[in-house]
Design brief:
Layout (H helix, E strand, L loop, with lengths): L22 H12 L6 H15 L1 H10 L3 E7 L1 H10 L3 E11 L5 H7 E11 L2 H6 L6
Parallel strand pairs: 1-2, 2-3
Helix pairs in contact: 4-5
Length: about 140
């Protein structure tokens, strides 16, 4: 549990992914790295992904607006979920980025306060909360 004297746990700003590439694609990436266009494979792949995201930025913005998603990082504290439970309204969480549920939230509280959760990106929550919400995570 985080107390007022303790800082909140640091949340990772990135997630590791694994991709499989054909040998020709990988060879072309290595050639571009060798020729100095990129510092390493990761640099080239990140640049390519950012370029594609930039190309489709309008579609992302329109979809986020249409689906009423929160863009970026959103942290749900125990008091946030207790307030939702007390109001009698369950949360329908839709995040593009990262959703974080405090470590002091029990599975019981999560079930009482969260109707559904959709995260396009990463969900950081305790194993107990993830187990409790398994049927509500889309």
């Amino acid at each position: 549990m985080v107390t007022p004297e303790q800082p909140a746990p640091r949340i990772a700003e990135s997630e590791k992914i694994t991709i499989n590439l054909g040998l020709i694609d990988l060879g072309q990436i290595d050639l571009l790295v060798q020729e100095g266009f990129y510092s390493n494979r990761t640099d080239m792949i990140r640049t390519a992904i950012r370029n594609q995201l930039g190309t489709h930025a309008d579609v992302v913005r329109q979809t986020v607006a249409r689906k009423s998603m929160v863009l970026g990082l959103h942290h749900f504290s125990r008091s946030d979920l207790e307030a939702a439970r007390a109001s009698g309204q369950k949360l329908d969480i839709q995040i593009l980025g990262m959703a974080s549920i405090a470590t002091d939230v029990s599975g019981e509280l999560a079930l009482a306060a969260i109707e559904s959760i959709t995260v396009l990106g990463a969900l950081h929550a305790s194993a107990e909360v993830k187990r409790a919400l398994a049927g509500r995570i889309k």
